[in-house]
């Protein structure tokens, strides 16, 4: 008898717990814990395929190329938690939206939720706010979303790949699932490779613990020399090219470097690109993407982005102030948006420390110092 016909809905949650499946959207939270918290609350189940990170394409790949396990997983999870509504969330007008419109969602009891575009609009609480008739911006909530409160009834928000893996798990079993990855981080997962790769972003399926060389080889190798790697996108961490290739790509393997697998983005920064300009463009975009609801986003992110521009221009005395500001951002926002920006910038200062002198005021060949050797800005 398949799991989907098992008499007890808790069997699905038990199977997810036994598999060790964690969220694939970036947080790596144990999936069964969120499901268990929602049982008996008649939650909404939101399958999040928005992908606010610009270089993430794995959820789009699922919807376009292999939606069967996604739909099966959503149906099973809805039964397991007693969901009153099931929604597939996509950015309005995106390629994923167009692909989702071609699916038989009605036949699976799934509604299509077209959310506004934007970096923070796909954050879990922002989707719940939009679903409940409010703006698609992160909202503060004392209780977990899966539990709900008087303003926002219970909602289970799961990344599309997470739900896709549930569908595979129900079809192939725990033993198959745990053959992939590591004992502490089991199961297959998708990585989105971009930057110095042909035709990127490209999707690669592997398990946690895979080596960077194997991931890059899977997309045909890099197209030009690489300076550094950004793990988990704009809200992630920079790694030097050499160190990134020496550790297993798992949360455990990357943790000593201040990084994690997160949402699976692996961006290879070409050596021909100025890293300070590249990071500055990301910080500018993150500042603009802010919902502007709290001090760290409203004031902190623009100040950090401005300091970074000044640092790139070689203005003296900026670095110490920038470091102080970065230390004030984490843990103080209404969501984790400022935390991600601070992590990006702080890791960039570490990885690109040897590049900073090429931007120092008065630097350049005329002052006896090497000028920035990059031939491209972004």
TrEMBL record:
<dbReference type="InterPro" id="IPR037225">
    <property type="entry name" value="Nuo51_FMN-bd_sf"/>
</dbReference>
<dbReference type="GO" id="GO:0051539">
    <property type="term" value="F:4 iron, 4 sulfur cluster binding"/>
</dbReference>
<keyword id="KW-0408">Iron</keyword>
<dbReference type="GO" id="GO:0046872">
    <property type="term" value="F:metal ion binding"/>
</dbReference>
<feature type="region of interest" description="Disordered">
    <location>
        <begin position="358"/>
        <end position="378"/>
    </location>
</feature>
<keyword id="KW-0004">4Fe-4S</keyword>
<dbReference type="Pfam" id="PF10589">
    <property type="entry name" value="NADH_4Fe-4S"/>
</dbReference>
<keyword id="KW-0830">Ubiquinone</keyword>
<dbReference type="Pfam" id="PF01512">
    <property type="entry name" value="Complex1_51K"/>
</dbReference>
<keyword id="KW-0411">Iron-sulfur</keyword>
<dbReference type="InterPro" id="IPR019575">
    <property type="entry name" value="Nuop51_4Fe4S-bd"/>
</dbReference>
<dbReference type="InterPro" id="IPR011538">
    <property type="entry name" value="Nuo51_FMN-bd"/>
</dbReference>
<feature type="domain" description="NADH-ubiquinone oxidoreductase 51kDa subunit iron-sulphur binding">
    <location>
        <begin position="284"/>
        <end position="357"/>
    </location>
</feature>
<protein>
    <submittedName>
        <fullName>NADH:ubiquinone oxidoreductase subunit F (NADH-binding)</fullName>
    </submittedName>
</protein>
<comment type="similarity">
    <text>Belongs to the complex I 51 kDa subunit family.</text>
</comment>
<feature type="domain" description="NADH-ubiquinone oxidoreductase 51kDa subunit FMN-binding">
    <location>
        <begin position="16"/>
        <end position="166"/>
    </location>
</feature>
<dbReference type="InterPro" id="IPR037207">
    <property type="entry name" value="Nuop51_4Fe4S-bd_sf"/>
</dbReference>
<keyword id="KW-0479">Metal-binding</keyword>
């Amino acid at each position: 008898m398949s799991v989907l016909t098992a008499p007890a809905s808790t069997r699905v949650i038990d199977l997810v717990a036994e598999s060790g499946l964690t969220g694939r959207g970036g947080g790596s939270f144990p999936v069964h814990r969120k499901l268990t918290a929602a049982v008996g609350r008649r939650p909404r189940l939101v399958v999040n395929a928005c992908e606010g990170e610009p270089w993430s394409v794995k959820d789009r790949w699922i919807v376009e190329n292999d939606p069967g396990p996604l739909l099966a997983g959503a149906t099973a999870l809805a039964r397991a938690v007693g969901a009153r509504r099931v929604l597939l969330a996509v950015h309005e007008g995106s390629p994923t939206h167009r692909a989702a419109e071609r699916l038989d969602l009605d036949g699976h009891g799934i509604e299509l939720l077209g959310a506004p575009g934007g970096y923070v609009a796909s954050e879990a609480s922002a989707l719940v706010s939009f679903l409940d008739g409010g703006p698609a911006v992160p909202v503060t909530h004392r209780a977990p979303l899966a539990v709900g409160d008087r303003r926002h009834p219970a909602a289970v928000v799961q990344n599309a790949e997470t739900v896709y893996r549930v569908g595979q798990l129900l079809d192939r079993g725990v033993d198959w699932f745990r053959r992939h990855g590591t004992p502490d981080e089991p199961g297959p997962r998708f990585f989105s490779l971009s930057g110095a790769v042909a035709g990127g972003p490209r999707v690669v399926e592997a398990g946690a613990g895979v080596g960077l060389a194997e991931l890059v080889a899977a997309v045909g190798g890099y197209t030009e020399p690489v300076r550094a790697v950004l793990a988990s996108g704009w809200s992630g961490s920079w790694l030097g090219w050499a160190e990134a290739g020496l550790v297993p790509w798992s949360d455990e393997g990357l943790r000593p470097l201040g990084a994690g697998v997160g949402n699976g983005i692996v961006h290879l920064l070409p050596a021909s690109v100025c890293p300070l300009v590249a990071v500055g463009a990301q910080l500018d975009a993150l500042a603009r993407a802010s919902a502007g609801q709290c001090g760290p986003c409203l004031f902190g992110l623009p100040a950090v982005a401005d300091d970074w521009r000044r640092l790139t221009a070689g203005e003296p005395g900026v670095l110490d102030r920038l470091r102080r500001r970065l230390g004030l951002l984490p843990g103080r926002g209404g969501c984790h948006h400022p935390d991600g920006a601070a992590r990006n910038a702080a890791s960039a200062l570490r990885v690109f420390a040897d590049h900073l002198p090429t931007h120092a005021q008065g630097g350049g060949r005329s002052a006896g110092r090497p000028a920035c050797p990059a031939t491209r800005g972004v």
